[in-house]
Amino acid sequence: MFLAQSSPFLKPELSVSKMMLVVTMLMIPGVLTATYVFGYGVLVNIFLAIIFALTFEAIVLYLRRRPIAVYLNDKSAVLTAVIIGVALPPLAPWWLTFIGLFFAIVIAKQLYGGLGYNTFNPAMVAYAILLISFPAEMTTYWQTPAMLASQFEGQTLSLLETINFQLFAQLPAGMTIDALTSATPLDIVRTAVLNGSATIDEIHSEGNAFGMLGGIGTEWVNLAFLAGGLFMLRKGLISWHIPISLLATLGFLSLLFGSFELDSNPSPLFHLFSGATMLGAFFIATDPVTASTTPRGRIIYGAGIGALIYIIRTWGGYPDAIAFAVLLMNMCAPLLDYYTQPRVYGHKADERDDEEIS
Amino acid sequence: MNQPLPTSITQTIKETLRHLWSFPGGIKLSGHKSLSNHQPISTAKIAKQLIIPLSQHIGHASEPIVNVGDKVLKGQILGYASGPVSAPVHASGSGTVVAIEEHLIPHPSGLSALCVFIDTDGYEQWVECSPLISDSSSTDDKQRTVTHQSITTLSHHQINQQIANAGVVGLGGALYPSAAKLNTAEKMHTDTLIINAAECEPYITCDDVLMRQRPEEVILGILLLKKVIGAKKCLIGIENNKPEAYQALLNTISGYNTSHTEAQIEIVQVPTLYPAGGEKQLIQVLTGREVPSQGLPMDIGIICHNVATAAAVYHAVYRGEPLISRIVTITGGAIKQPQNMEVPLGTPIRDILNQAGLDEDKVEKIIMGGPMMGFSLPSIDTPVTKATNCILVSEKDELATPPPAMPCIRCARCSDSCPMSLLPQQMYWYAKTRDLEKVQDYNIFDCIECGCCSYVCPSNIPLVQYFRYAKTEIWDDERERNKANIARDRHEFRKERLEKAKQAKAEAAQLRKEKLAKKKALDAEKAKEKEGLNQSNDKPAKSSSADLIQEAIARAKAKKAQQQSQKKNTDNLSEAQQKKIDDVNERRRKKTDSEEI
């Protein structure tokens, strides 16, 4: 007569699909700012990435005999695609996106069991693989930020010209890729510091790396992602633990080491508002599937990523480090979860049944 | 003159000074309480036939003492309490017992239980009531002159006996016989009485209207409860979404607080956050203390009672009336006139739904209890029992139709919302794979099944359902194991007994032989003596027979030992395994202990 069901009966407040959609929407300010700074390539990247992502996802779901519509509708693939689209160099050729999405969706996500079962953040797996396999493409196709284009007589591309270049590698007559692109602020600073060719002050005076807060151009993108991230916090879509501990650790370490050698260490603000810091802190590190889940575990997880970002940026082989930092901490998540279980109501603080670790 | 401050002022001061604690997690829910909480409490019409289950409480079902064909009066006892944890059941209307048989009761699994069927005569003739505090002046409620002074003349024993006889049980949902609980509390020197008036589940307003419209009954009932256990402190915890109820209690209490210092009752408003009305959560919010795992509030000197229970105690003591009716919230989108109704126990749910105006076309789900912890009724031809606090009849789209569950994305919203700080996600993995050891390591038995985790899960995983499944599986396993243990013990005992008998027989035979040998030897000696020979050579023979006996006993012992070791599969356990078993046994022991109280 009536539909039998077990309690609770209230309508759930949120669904995976809605969650992914809202998070994706909240990336829009960052995406638009990135488009303003780095040109239409960002949008082309995202567009291609979404198409590739949905195609790969559908194919694998078909092969795995899973309901295609249900899982495409969870929108997790779209979110992954948007993150990869923003993270890739704005003038990246289409095949870079294609390979990236193949690794993200097919290898890192679906072969591990699909949504919820992947150990590593799919977008970061893709980024790391591309960075290792195609270092030249991944570092040189960064269009000169809009703030510098006029100052350095740089050239810009229209939307059609951008598409033409990304799909067919054809530039308008008289333009060269070198004239269009320049090293990112993080790259400039790192190269200078590693080679000892310039001090922080000298880079400052050149005016091609530092903006008001962080890296020129990228600081605006970071601010936009920060805004989106804060909104997610307010809406309770993510918990504060990971982003706050990540940013605090990164800021603290750069302050600590920066105060010893001012000449070769950029300020904490530069670290916080350059590269993919805010995107990483709020939209990548908070990927629930691959992060730690307990409150204390999440704090350690975020702090670990923050520390690794600083270490790799300062002493490692890459200008930015979100992908490696996140992947390294992904590996620690299960361990963190196990050892940071909260004290259950009515139990004593030191009481834990951990004599049977299997 | 030492004039005390008006209560309203002292209360305000107390409220601002009082420190409240909080519990982890919890969720904000829209209350839907205004649907039903401002109408006066109506009275349900007496049904043509009452179906009164003999088990409306935790513990043993009461034993029927009426027979088919008996005429019964309203309030007459139908079944006696049948053990220390049990409660009597009374007739909620006058009429004739027409049957005593199994009938569907409101139970999540659609179980049946023994019920007394009474065809009512409509006269509503009461059995003679014997209130403890007699009041013969008037039968009109308003003219009853009950003072707090009069209860000081009663002994706590008297009051508790009256509560026991009236069949009062915990009306907050636990249904634990109140008298038994009070008895234990008194023995354990419980000093704090907490009255649960939080009513945190959406839709339910039966406690709310009770406090608004009958605050006197609640307060007098509380004073009785306080008297029985000899509590020094009494706190009423009420969610701050019930300002009217709060005010009503406050106004009533003022008369008692100023004139009797021993009557001190403090009303505390707690933040509206589900599940603030959970016993453990309310204790935490009010006192900052935690009930030990597998323990009872009494372990930390606290006893909790529901407001409706307090009102039932009032009825038992001041009017001598047993618990034969309760207030039921009838609400939901498919009810034309949502309201609270005083319903005689045993009234078919169909009757009261019809009285409140059931919109047959709109009905989608019929739930007993709230939308967070209630259950779908197997049928509306089941009776209202002491447990029925709310009947929620939802229309389309009012409540969730379970959408297909998606994979867990480990977002941890479940653990963030858990008021017990459990890790529902981990418990879910282990429950799903039926790893019952692991699921207990994650403290599944601390789960209060409040439903927060299921509600917040974006993947719509019915987490609570998995936990209920795991719990019942564990209980089932343990029952099986207990059974096996008993069987094994019995078998071993029998073997031992047979062995002993055999041995005794053998020994007796030996003894006889020895005697015989001795006699023979004696005879021989005598014969030899006669012959004048003093040499005796029967000693070695004697000792060799003793050796034989020893050997036989040793053989028997070895055989027994061997058999024992073959029979037990728990003998060659590693230390770790033994520890595991001990742990499980310990847990099981604790669990059963806590269930009994």
Looking at this protein, list some descriptive labels.
heterodimer, A: 358 residues, mainly alpha, 0% strand, globular, disordered C terminus, B: 597 residues, alpha/beta, Rossmann fold, Fumarate Reductase Iron-sulfur Protein, Chain B, domain 2, six-stranded mixed sheet, four-stranded antiparallel sheet, 41% helix, 14% strand, elongated
Would you give an account of this structure?
The complex is a heterodimer of chains A (about 350) and B (about 600). Chain A is mostly helical and about 350 residues long. Chain A contains 19 helices and no strands. Chain A is globular. Chain B is of the alpha/beta class and about 600 residues long. Chain B is about 40% helix and about 15% strand. Chain B contains 16 helices and 17 strands. Chain B has a 6-stranded mixed sheet, with helices on both faces. In chain B, strands 2-8-7-4 form a 4-stranded antiparallel sheet, with no helix packed on it. In chain B, α2 (about 155-165) crosses α5, α11 (about 425-430) crosses α14 (about 465-530) and α14 (about 465-530) runs antiparallel to α15 (about 540-565). Chain B is elongated, with a radius of gyration of 33 Å. In chain B, about 45% of the residues are buried. Residues about 135-145 of chain B have low confidence and may be disordered. Chains A and B meet through α1 of A and β15, β16, α10, α13 and α14 of B.
